[in-house]
Amino acid sequence: MKVLLRIKRYDPEREAKPYWDEFRVESDPIDRLLDALNTVKWTMDGTLTYRRSCAHGVCGSDAMRINGRNRLACKVLMRDVGNKVTIEPMLGYPVIRDLVVDMDNFFEKYKSVKPYLINYDNEPGTERLQSATQRERFDEGTKCILCGACTGSCPSIWGNPDWVGPASIVNAHRFIFDSRDQGGSERLQILGRKDGVWRCRTIFNCADACPRGIPVTDLIEQVKRAIVYGGPGEE
């Protein structure tokens, strides 16, 4: 199938504003969009810039805005996007070049919620055991690959770049609801601030954008309830 790729290009060091560039490529319906972008870069225009790595939907590096929705280029099949595809960098991030965005602020917010196990007890000498039910409470949050697609799809981020964002809240949830962790109150205090969880407007863009199918909005609501009730409660 012949496909027209309409790609938003921008090099802040050389150009005053972004512009649209078009490429026509031959593509198989079961090819991935990443394959089409590789065809452009390798055979048509080597200056086209985008991130890519594992190409299997695990690393999350090739998140971009495809036909108006944040997706991973390595997971989108050409048959699902048609013969004309609009490709842009994700919104809410500064553009470094073309489809590559600056995610430094994203990772600073991620680090701010203490996304690691906090436990003040002495080392047990064995694994810290928990039941299957206890594990299930935070299992969804462990699937996050930090691609930034959820955060870049959020209107609250577009309007307020200081907001902590859905990805950070998901990763905080993963430890707040972990029975082995003792840092939940610290994270809830962080997320209870003005740029914390309450700026979520429950729009569900984040859940739609997540390539791992994480119910992002639901996890955010669970964190809100934990703040209101003084903790995640017992399972």
From TrEMBL:
The keyword Iron-sulfur applies. GO terms for molecular function: 2 iron, 2 sulfur cluster binding; 3 iron, 4 sulfur cluster binding; 4 iron, 4 sulfur cluster binding; electron transfer activity; metal ion binding; succinate dehydrogenase (quinone) activity. Residues 134-166 form the 4Fe-4S ferredoxin-type domain. One of its GO terms (biological process) is tricarboxylic acid cycle. Pathway: Carbohydrate metabolism; tricarboxylic acid cycle. Its cofactor is [3Fe-4S] cluster; [2Fe-2S] cluster; [4Fe-4S] cluster. Belongs to the succinate dehydrogenase/fumarate reductase iron-sulfur protein family. The keyword Magnesium does not apply. PANTHER family: SUCCINATE DEHYDROGENASE [UBIQUINONE] IRON-SULFUR SUBUNIT, MITOCHONDRIAL, SUCCINATE DEHYDROGENASE IRON-SULFUR PROTEIN. SUPFAM superfamilies: 2Fe-2S ferredoxin-like (SSF54292), alpha-helical ferredoxin (SSF46548). It comes from the Bacteria. The lineage of its organism: Bacteria, Bacillati, Chloroflexota, Ktedonobacteria, Ktedonobacterales. Residues 1-91 form the 2Fe-2S ferredoxin-type domain. Signal peptide: none annotated. InterPro entries: 2Fe-2S_ferredoxin-like_sf (IPR036010), 2Fe-2S_ferredoxin-type (IPR001041), 4Fe4S_Fe-S-bd (IPR017896), 4Fe4S_Fe_S_CS (IPR017900), Beta-grasp_dom_sf (IPR012675), Helical_ferredxn (IPR009051), SDH/FRD_Iron-Sulfur (IPR050573), Succ_DH/fum_Rdtase_Fe-S (IPR004489). This is Succinate dehydrogenase iron-sulfur subunit. Binds 1 [3Fe-4S] cluster. Binds 1 [2Fe-2S] cluster. It catalyses: a quinone + succinate = fumarate + a quinol. Its EC number is 1.3.5.1. Keywords: 2Fe-2S, 3Fe-4S, 4Fe-4S, Iron, Iron-sulfur, Metal-binding, Oxidoreductase, Tricarboxylic acid cycle.
